[in-house]
Write a structure and sequence with these properties.
With 690 residues, the protein is an alpha+beta fold. 44% of the residues lie in helices and 28% in strands. The strands form five sheets. The chain has a six-stranded antiparallel beta sheet with strand order 3-2-1-6-5-4, sandwiched between helices. Strands 14-13-12-17-16-15 form a six-stranded antiparallel beta sheet. The protein has a five-stranded antiparallel beta sheet with strand order 8-7-11-10-9, sandwiched between helices.
């Protein structure tokens, strides 16, 4: 506006200047100037008119948008715009998608997998222009942060946005209505209907419904059973009988004015030996206009109740006996609970006290809620904390397996208790306390833990056995292949020296195979019958010398020195020398495998009323964390060294069979010392002076 005024002022000044400069005013420039001024005035007027119309249109648009926004808000609607060329959905209103919108791929991820094919087909038809508008439903995951899906039920109404002259839309406008509450309500109603139907069919009371004319609409199983008909008679009766024709209703009910009715009726059918009493209740069901819509009839067999009532008048003695039986039962129950390390407990939320009962009624211990909380450890204190809100935490039967300090147990150790409780209600239905059982489950829990550990050991043993079998296949095959192969070569050799060398190799492999078989037989015998010991009077020193002569032959490496420590010339003992020599042989055999230079020293000495035997080597050594495992079955510290992994476990069994001890001292890179001590009497000994 200001620019226009400035322009007009400038034009007038220019005109006046020209007029001043020219004493005579030229008519043509004057006319043009006037026309220009008029045109600018008209432009200004039109601009004002257009501005007012635009302002009015904007106010109308804002008003319309406000109305649409309120309508969308009140209708739980969401509005999206899908730009087909960009493959992006923009949020126009609602909370279904993020503010930035989402791509089609992201949209697919949020549609339920079962609904996705149908939704994609509808979207395809809209994009291709096969459908101008479509309505379809699908489930939508509204959780954009990951984790558990939060499914919403959406009704999608989509229309295509078309440009003039185009057969395919450039975009799709979708209105999404959240039907989750409606669907959930329908599901709840169905669930409720199913529950009521289940209650109706399984009720112990006979129930039936009639229309206002007395025609049967429905009857449950119990009602049909109360009529005592066979299947054919039952179907005929329930399909044809009218309520107002049946006894006792035909005598007491006015079909034109049905009122509440109760009666106890006797049912006699002598030909079927049926003599029963039925309690019958009739209840009219009316609508808001007090119009009769249904007639409900309930019936139950009270024959036994009536007979019990009559019998109670005649059996006072039996009642007394029953009371005595109850007392005896309570006493036996108390004994049983004591034998099972159980106690009953009762809590009063009004007095805020807990009673530990001996039996069902005798109070053994009484503590306050605060004192009761001190019995629980920090990990299980939530049970005690539950007493702060008993109406919430004990409204239903509860059961806890928790660790506590002794409540009634005669021990200072923590114990595991199984605590069960049921609520106690007053006449108004309010929770006033709870009643339950406390049982000491410590031995059971410990047994479970022990069983778990035994299972783990069994699993580990099974794994090791599998490894053992695989290893045995390899270990047995190796010497057998050598024996067979070198036996064939032996036939081809011509010189005695070559034959002796092959015979030596065959002999070594036969010895190795024999050791494998002996270990397997030994471990199998121990598993089947246990380890047997056959002690005899033996000169330990002499037997040790002979054994060392044999063991020295196994040390073939010239860089390894075999050293024997035999401090006695004569050492008379009573031992199973075969088993003892088996242990020493195994010690030396292992030392030979793992020692490449240095020495192997084997010896013994008298110690602590027994014999201490040892085998010291300068081999590769054993890591500290593996020293305790070398005596377990099927354990090999080096898979590249031949062996069964059973030798040292057999040695351990022999030591235990002799009531002795076995162990190893080792350092990686320095060597190992395997030792065994067994108790034994020494009958005679003579020291070796050499």
């Amino acid at each position: 506006m200001e620019s226009i005024i400035m322009f007009i002022s400038y034009s007038i000044n220019l005109f006046l200047q020209v007029s001043t400069d020219n004493s005579t005013i030229q008519p043509l420039p004057m006319f043009l100037m006037i026309v220009i001024v008029v045109l600018f005035i008209l432009f200004f007027i039109l601009n004002r008119i257009v501005s007012r119309k635009v302002h009015h249109a904007m106010r109308e648009s804002n008003h319309t948008n406000a109305i649409m926004h309120q309508a969308l808000k009140n209708g739980e609607n969401n509005v999206l715009y899908y730009n087909i060329s960009e493959d992006w959905s923009y949020k126009l209103y609602g909370h279904t998608v993020p503010e930035k919108g989402l791509s089609t791929e992201d949209w697919k991820k949020h549609v339920h997998p079962e609904d996705l094919p149908y939704a994609l087909d509808c979207l395809r038809k809209l994009i291709k222009g096969e459908k101008k508008a479509m309505k379809f439903n699908y489930r939508w995951n509204s959780n954009y942060e990951g984790g558990e899906p939060q499914w919403r039920y959406l009704r999608n109404t989509s229309v295509g946005e078309y440009l003039p002259g185009f057969k395919r839309p450039v975009g799709i406008i979708s209105t999404l209505y959240d039907e989750t509450n409606i669907v959930m309500k329908q599901e709840r109603e169905k669930e409720l209907t199913d529950k009521y139907r289940l209650i109706f069919e399984n009720s112990i009371i006979g129930l039936s419904f009639y229309n206002p004319e007395g025609k049967l609409l429905d009857a449950n199983k119990t009602m049909r059973e109360l009529c005592h008909f066979d299947s054919e008679e039952e179907d005929k009766f329930f399909s044809q009988a009218n309520l107002f024709d049946l006894s006792p209703f035909n005598e007491h009910i006015n079909k034109n004015d049905v009122q509440e009715f109760w009666a106890c009726s006797k049912s006699d059918i002598p030909e079927r030996d049926i003599h029963s009493y039925l309690e019958i209740r009739l209840h009219p069901i009316r609508n808001e206009k007090d119009e009769l819509v249904y007639i409900a009839v309930a019936a139950r067999d009270v024959t036994e109740e009536r007979e019990m009532y009559l019998q109670s008048k005649l059996n006072d003695i039996q009642i007394q006996k029953a009371n005595e039986e109850i007392q005896r039962y309570e006493m036996e129950l108390r004994y049983m609970m004591e034998a099972c390390d159980m106690r009953a407990w009762r809590a009063s939320f009004i007095e805020r006290k807990i009673q530990i009962l001996n039996g069902l009624s005798e109070i053994e211990k009484e503590v306050s809620f605060d004192e009761f909380a001190t019995f629980f450890t920090n990990e299980t204190g939530r049970f005690a904390e539950g007493f702060a809100q008993p109406e919430k935490n004990f409204a239903q039967p509860v059961s806890f397996l928790i660790q506590t300090r002794p409540i009634f147990h005669k021990t200072k150790e923590l114990v595991w208790n199984q605590i069960n409780s049921i609520p106690i209600l007053n006449e108004a239905g309010e929770i006033t306390g709870c009643f339950g059982i406390v049982r000491n489950m410590t031995r059971f829990i410990n047994a479970q833990e022990q069983l778990k550990q035994e299972k783990q050991r069994a699993d580990e043993s099974g794994r090791l056995k599998s490894v053992f079998l695989a290893n045995m296949t390899h270990e047995i095959r190796t010497p057998l292949n050598a024996i067979v192969g070198f036996s064939d070569l032996l036939q081809m050799m011509t010189t005695t020296e070559e034959k002796q060398e092959l015979i030596h190799v065959i002999h070594n492999n036969c010895d190795m195979l024999l050791r494998l078989i002996n270990d397997i037989m030994a471990i199998s015998a121990m598993d089947a019958n246990g380890l047997t010991m056959n002690p005899t009077d033996t000169d330990f020193a002499h037997a040790f010398d002979e054994l060392c002569q044999s063991l020295a032959q196994r040390v073939e490496n010239p860089n390894v020195q075999f050293i024997k420590d035999n401090p006695y010339k004569v050492l008379q003992t009573h031992l199973d020398m075969g088993r003892i020599m088996q242990v020493i042989t195994n010690f030396v055999t292992n030392a030979v495998k793992y020692t490449q230079e240095g020495h192997i020293r084997v010896g013994y000495r008298i110690q602590d009323n027994g014999i201490y035997m040892y085998c010291e080597d300068t081999g590769i050594g054993i890591p500290k964390d593996q020293c305790t495992k070398v005596f377990d079955r099927f354990v090999k510290l080096n898979d590249f060294v031949q062996g069964t992994g059973l030798g040292l476990s057999i040695c351990k069994a022999i030591a235990e069979g002799c009531k002795g001890k076995i162990g190893v001292e080792s350092e990686v890179g320095q060597g190992s010392t395997f030792w065994m001590w067994i108790p034994c009497p020494i009958n005679n000994m003579e020291e070796n002076n050499n």
